[in-house]
Structures are given as C-alpha cells and as structure tokens.
Write a structure and sequence with these properties.
Layout: E1 5-11, H1 18-25, E2 31-36, H2 43-49, E3 53-56, H3 62-71, E4 77-80, H4 92-100
Parallel strand pairs: 1-2, 1-4, 2-3
Length: 119
C-alpha cells in the first residue's frame, strides 16, 4: 500500500501540527507531499526533517496549491489531508480500500458527517 499512495498536505504556518500529521501518515505512504503556502514559521523545516517532499505553492489559494502537488505525484492513488489534525489518519486504509479493490475510482470523505460509511 505504501508504494501506491501519495498523501498531499497543504500547509501555511502549521508548525504545531505538521510533525504529528507527517508521522501518522507515513505509516500509509512513503510519498508525503507538503505543499506550503509560504509559511512564516518552521513548517517547512519540520516537514523536510521528517523526509516529506516540500513544494512551495504559487500564492493563488488552496485549490491551486493542490493542483501543483498533484502535478508532482507519480502514484496510483492521491489522498488530500489537512495539516490541522482535523482528519483521522487511521481512516486512510478504509478510504483507499475500495480503490485498491477496484470497487471505486474516487472516494470522498467529510469530517463534518462523522461516522459516514464508505460506499
């Protein structure tokens, strides 16, 4: 599984949480991409020290940052995760399972719905 998934984490001044998120997601992927919105804190340094790939965004917003990151992936599966810890990294296997089993091409999750089922 680790060699099939890229995890993209957009950031801006996330030094308090980025280390934990990278450590947690690295259980599921060896390709963690941090696309940074020109942070003024140590977000980039922390990400690089944990062997994440760090790409600077183009200052055109989160959507543009995600597109830049996708252009830098080579894996079969791309997963987007926020850096603030609002997503449970333990849900990653459940989210990608339908894709790995050829039951889905796309899986969308929402932290707002809580307890949703993968269908």
């Amino acid at each position: 599984m680790k060699d099939k998934i890229s995890i993209i984490i957009p950031t801006r001044n996330e030094e308090r949480t980025i280390g934990t998120i990278i450590k947690q997601t690295s259980k599921y992927s060896s390709d963690i991409i941090v696309v940074d919105g020109h942070s003024k804190d140590s977000t980039r340094d922390i990400a690089q020290s944990l062997k994440a790939r760090v790409i600077l965004d183009n200052s055109k917003g989160k959507g543009a940052a995600l597109r830049i990151a996708v252009q830098n992936t080579t894996r079969e599966i791309v997963l987007f995760m926020d850096a603030d810890g609002s997503h449970e990294t333990s849900d990653i296997p459940r989210l990608i399972k339908p894709i790995l089993e050829d039951k889905a091409d796309l899986v969308v999750a929402s932290r707002m719905l809580g307890g949703s089922d993968v269908q």
